[in-house]
Amino acid sequence: MPKFNGLITSKLPAAGTTIFSVMSALATEHKAINLSQGFPDFEVSPDLINLVHEMMKCGHNQYAPMPGVLQLRQIIAQKVKELYSANYNPEDEITITSGGTQALFTAIAALIREGDEVIIFDPAYDSYAPAVKLAGGIPVSLQLKPPHFSIEWNEVKRSIRQRTRMILINTPHNPTGSILTSSDMMMLEKLTKDNDIIILSDEVYEHIIFDGYEHQSVMRFPKLAERSMVVFSFGKTFHTTGWKTGYILAPSALMAEFRKVHQFNVFSVNTPLQYALAEFMRDKNHYAGIGKMYEQKRNLFMQLMKGSKFKPLACSGSYFLIFDYSKISDEPDFEFARRLTIEHGVASIPVSSFYNKPPGKKWLRFCFAKSDETLKAAAERLVAIQDIA
Ligand code: PMP
Ligand code: GLN
Fold this sequence. Notes:
Layout: H1 19-29, E1 33-34, H2 46-57, H3 70-84, E2 94-97, H4 99-111, E3 117-122, H5 128-134, E4 138-143, H6 153-159, E5 164-170, H7 182-192, E6 198-202, H8 222-225, E7 228-233, H9 234-237, E8 246-249, H10 252-265, H11 271-280, H12 285-288, H13 290-304, E9 311-312, E10 320-324, H14 333-344, E11 346-347, E12 349-350, E13 363-367, H15 372-383
Parallel strand pairs: 1-11, 3-4, 3-5, 5-6, 6-7
Antiparallel strand pairs: 2-8, 7-8, 9-10, 10-13, 12-13
């Protein structure tokens, strides 16, 4: 084996294995209930599975067109028109991707150059900053302000400079469950109207929003939409995270640049899944009800945790809840999360993993996209913990 001494200089020296893989592996090793990585433990609709099978049997097994199966792009165009009054041309403004992560990565690779600054709000989904760095860009981390993890717009204004090329937003938000309001969107519109900043809007949890709030997509704001690339994931909406399928919408000039990279990155995405999803999406009930379903799960999990020493932070969307464990232990979050998995049989994600500079809080993220039985079993173990400092 060559040793490559001195030949390999890591492009991501600080990166280890993503925390989602680390915690899921630990959960499996110790047979813990896995509330760490974000994925549902309940089944996909049998109708959707049958559709995939049918599409395979009727011969949809070769490369899909590079931008995606047209029928799927058409139904997405129809959906965003109905939901957000937004007009996107399926021909040149919508592309099917291998999940939200690939859409984000490809958008950043296509548009960020050496030295470009990208504003990211911490805590942030863990793929954003590495993608920016690999493109030669500079992540500029601003802090969301607890308890509601809101954006400080004055700080954004102060941080916008000549080199600012992109602002990355995420609503509903992973890991905090916060959401952006229409006044946030109007501020974003105001701050970007006189410059060339691109908005990369991660809206993979668009349907998972609670308490009567409406999802404020950038697409609802025509001036913002003109400069935005908007990312979605079928994994979140149809409980199919393992299918790694999603899509991105953007005005044609931005989409043309996106596709230049996409075609050499994945070329195209799994064909039978695309045909099946196009058919399945014709019935709006397949996604319209998921907000209510997850709201009940959030309520159930909070109710079950009432007797515990873990204190919940607010959560208006996504399928994650952060709990503060400072009444239980002084340990740093990674150590505590490890011990919780190994000794108490419940896996979670230490929230410091979502920060460039962790604020030293005693916070763990729990995924409640689980059957009621799983949530009950996990809560029982967590409520039993009184003091393990
Ligand atoms: N963005 C956020 C905020 C996410 O939580 C996820 C979760 N997986 C993704 C993007 C990526 O989605 P996908 O699994 O479709 O790549
Ligand atoms: N988005 C999921 C989460 O936040 C996991 C994605 C992944 O494992 N890469 O847990």
